[in-house]
Every structure is written in C-alpha cells, then in structure tokens.
Amino acid sequence: MRRPIAAPLLAVLASALLAVPALAQWKWVDSAGHVQYSDLPPPAGVPEKDILQRPNAVQRRTAAAPAPASAASGALVPKPVDSELEAKRKKTEQDEEARKKAQQKAEEAKVAAARADNCTRARAQLRTLDSGVRVARINEQGEREVLDDAGRAQEAQRARDIVASDCK
After folding, report:
1. Where is 112: in which H helix or E strand?
2. What is the pTM of this model?
3. CA 28, 29, 31, 36: dihedral to nearest 10 degrees?
4. Taking the alpha carbons of 93, 98, 101, 107 in that order, is the dihedral positive or negative?
5. What is the pLDDT of residues 132-162, one digit of tens each?
C-alpha cells in the first residue's frame, strides 16, 4: 500500500510558513534582567549590548553600513542635517520676523496718526477757547451748558496739555 506524500508535505510547508514571522523577531534583555521578545524594536533606552537578536533585514542593513570612526570610540554621532529642511525652517523664521516687524511698523503708524489727529483737534479747541467766542458743552444729564471763565480756563489748560504731549 502506497502512502500519499501530499499530507506530510503540506504539514512541513505549513510549519515552515508559520515559522517565517519568527524570523522578524527582536530579542533583548530589559532593565530588570528579563529576556523580552517582540516584533517591534526595543525601547530607545535599551543599550546596544543588551539587544540579543535582530530581524534578518535589520542585521543585513547594520552589517552593510560601515561604522563611523567616532562610533568606535564611543562618541555620539550627530544626525545629518537635511539642508532643504533647514532652509525651509530659516525661511519660515525670517518670514515670521518680517511679519512681526511689519505689524510693529503698522501699529506705530496707527499711533502716530492718532497723535497727529489729537494734536490737530487740541489746537483747534485751544484757538476756539482763546478767541472769546461763547462755548457750550453737553453735561452728563444731556443738558446744554455755557462755559464760564473758570470752565473756559479749565478746558484751555486741558487742550494745552494735549498739545504739549501729542504735538512734537
């Protein structure tokens, strides 16, 4: 009686396919001294000497890349700087600085225009008060009241103070 070869062959193939994911396993010793297994790389704090096994693709990449001379001496190797990214960052910083300067100049121009307007109004008010014309104003109750000499002197002093501060 002849045995079918297909069943054992299928069993061998199935077990081989199940073992393929095991090739992409990491193995390292954690800080407590326990051996850890994972399909993800170990945490960043795990020293290189505690990594016991890497996936085959990672081993090939690390073996193919030559180690820098400073890495052999234990010195930290700086990351290469992406010049295009650095140029974009500098451009963004310059644009932001230029925008802030433009805003500051616009604000200064706005304040200067307000001071000039205050100066013009205060000078006109002072001329009116000094001319001797009867001047009336509306009080808090909404009533019209004519300024007497004391009120006229008080308003004139207020207008002079505004001229002194805003007309430079």
Report:
1. helix 83-131
2. 0.43
3. 70
4. negative
5. 888 888 989 999 999 898 989 999 999 999 9
